[in-house]
Design a protein that fits this description.
Elements (H helix, E strand, L loop, with lengths): L3 E5 L2 H6 L1 H10 L9 H11 L4 E9 L3 E13 L2 E6 L11 E2 L4 H14 L6 E7 L5 H4 L8 E9 L2 E3 L4 H6 L3 H18 L2 E5 L5 H15 L16 H14 L3 E8 L2 E11 L2 E9 L8 H15 L4 E3 L6 H5 L6 E8 L3 H23 L7
Parallel strand pairs: 4-6, 12-13
Antiparallel strand pairs: 1-2, 2-3, 3-4, 3-5, 6-14, 7-14, 8-13, 9-10, 10-11, 11-12
């Protein structure tokens, strides 16, 4: 089968892709919100001034757009690097590959990138999900490429049963008490209510509340707050993402309220047969009541009632996620280079930095027993 490949590297081409890109997203069961046009266009709008889009689109005569590499061309030091759009703010990065065309479309993308290898030095594909078709596409490495594979972060996933009762029965005693007994008592004693924000016109206020609570949650540990979350562009970016996703019916921004005031909030998206969590926050004044865990329970109940098959907690291996029944899925980083002198030099420098970090970790003294 023959494919037509085009490179989209300007704003007009990016805008023109919206309908076809969204249609392809719907056809890919493993796709995440971070592979959507809505997320990536908002990222480009607010964070894209240090490079340019480098989007490779694959079309065939029958199915239209069947593959997409949502890449970004920028620099790291002296090296020209292709990364995923959304890099730094996305929990995952991936190609979009129609299931009927996944292997040949991926091969066509890597052949196209190789043919245009004078435009870049490193192809750095970070936070690729465990379920991505990129894994098989890069085993072995495409012809002409050098490949470095590294494990990245855990992205815990809860397989959701058909009913809430089935889910709670699967939990151990402590988390089951939180989502049942403690939740019922909190609602009864505090008059708490749970709301899901889904409409575009409600996004600005809901995102402002979420961000206020997110900053409050980390107020005692500001150095642990993600760098991008401290920057002025973050709230406008998140508001645009939510509005665009709300128009598609994907937004699920959960709020736990007491006396009309939001005390905990969580940003989720419903995509295909799964829900994806992204950002949370809560008022520390209520932390003895475990508002974050209570909100988790409300959101999981809503996802099950909506017929979702999985709940994706997002990046991070915090213990509470596994208490709630999550299974570990680890993302990977794929770094590719060609045989050009610049590409080989960039690839070698990356390998040396990685080995240096590994060595430093091994040399760190073990903590003393208490």
């Amino acid at each position: 089968m023959s494919y037509q490949l085009t490179l989209v590297a300007d704003a007009a081409g990016f805008v023109a892709l919206e309908e076809a890109w969204t249609g392809l997203l719907a056809a890919v069961a493993t796709a995440t919100i971070f592979a959507s046009w809505q997320w990536n266009f908002a990222w480009w709008h607010h964070w894209g001034d240090a490079g340019s889009p480098y989007i490779v689109a694959v079309r065939d005569s029958r199915d239209g757009l069947v593959g997409l590499a949502p890449l970004w061309a920028g620099r790291v030091g002296p090296w020209r690097r292709l990364t995923f759009l959304g890099n730094g703010l996305s929990d995952a990065g991936d190609f979009l590959l129609h299931p009927a065309h996944a292997a040949p479309a991926a091969a066509a993308i890597f052949a196209f990138l190789y043919a245009n290898r004078r435009a870049w030095d490193l192809l750095d594909l970070d936070e690729v999900p465990a379920t991505s078709p990129l894994g098989p596409a890069l085993d072995p490495a495409p012809r002409g490429y050098r490949l470095l594979v590294r494990p990245r972060n855990d992205n815990p996933v809860i397989p959701l049963p058909p009913t809430w009762e089935d889910y709670t029965r699967s939990l151990k005693r402590k988390p089951r008490y939180v989502v049942e007994g403690l939740t019922q008592r909190f609602v009864r004693e505090q008059g708490a209510e749970f709301l899901l924000v889904t409409a575009p016109e409600d996004c600005a206020a809901a995102v402002a509340d979420l961000y206020r609570l997110h900053r409050a949650r980390w107020a005692s540990r500001p150095d642990e707050l993600t760098v991008e979350h401290r920057l002025p562009a973050f709230v406008p970016f998140l508001t645009e993402v939510c509005r665009r996703c709300a128009r598609q019916g994907w937004l699920r921004l959960g709020q736990l309220r007491v006396d009309g005031t939001t005390i905990a909030a969580a940003l989720d998206f419903a995509l295909g047969d799964h829900w994806e969590g992204y950002l949370t926050g809560f008022d520390p004044a209520w932390q003895d009541h475990r508002p974050g865990r209570l909100l988790d329970g409300f959101i999981l109940r809503a996802a099950i009632h909506a017929g979702a098959g999985e709940y994706h907690y997002g990046r991070g291996d915090e213990g509470y996620k596994y208490e709630m029944g999550a299974l570990a899925r680890r993302s990977r980083r794929f770094v590719l280079a060609t045989g050009s002198p610049r590409s080989v030099a960039a690839f070698t420098a990356l390998q040396l930095r990685g080995r240096g970090r590994d060595l430093l970790r091994r040399l760190q003294p073990a903590p003393l027993p208490l």
